[in-house]
Design goal:
With 128 residues, the chain is mainly alpha-helical. It has one domain. It is 51% helix and 5% strand. It has three helices and two strands, in the order H-E-H-E-H. It has a two-stranded antiparallel ribbon with strand order 1-2. Helix 1 runs antiparallel to helix 3. The longest helix has 33 residues. This is FlgB family protein. It comes from Aquicoccus porphyridii. It is found in: Bacterial flagellum basal body. One of its GO terms (cellular component) is bacterial-type flagellum basal body.
Length: 128
């Protein structure tokens, strides 16, 4: 039931985006000394959301529905690294650390949105 409420879909999409971005940042840090590696990042959540027709695209309630998405679209991953090192590596640990902090805040925001929605539902049911 909660999966069909747009409010909770937005919180889920935000948390999914944060998780994907955290994985990309972690991969950048892991390859900080790899020659020729270019840093990557995800497209911002706002751009990912705007790229979909009405925020979440067509709705598919079953896997067999044509052109219906059952969840939020995955964010696009793009190369952002500049060649900072002589070996062609484009990862800067300081920038990746700042991105990791930003991702943590984004994930905390998604959890806060979800909890707020649950509190509203509980209050409307008289159980909050």
């Amino acid at each position: 039931m909660l999966a069909k409420i747009d409010y909770f879909q937005l919180a889920r999409a935000l948390a999914t985006h944060a998780g994907t971005r955290q994985a990309v940042v972690a991969q950048n840090v892991a390859n900080a000394d790899t020659p020729g590696y270019k840093a990557r990042d995800t497209v911002s959540f706002a751009d990912t959301l705007a790229a979909q027709a009405d925020g979440f695209g067509l709705r598919g309630t079953r896997a067999g529905h044509l052109h219906g998405a059952t969840g939020p679209a995955a964010p696009a991953i793009v190369e952002t690294g500049r060649q900072n090192d002589p070996n062609g590596n484009g990862v800067t640990i300081e920038e990746e650390t700042l991105k990791a902090v930003e991702v943590k805040r984004q994930h905390d925001r998604a959890i806060a949105i979800y909890r707020s929605g649950l509190n509203v539902l509980r209050a409307s049911l008289g159980k909050g």
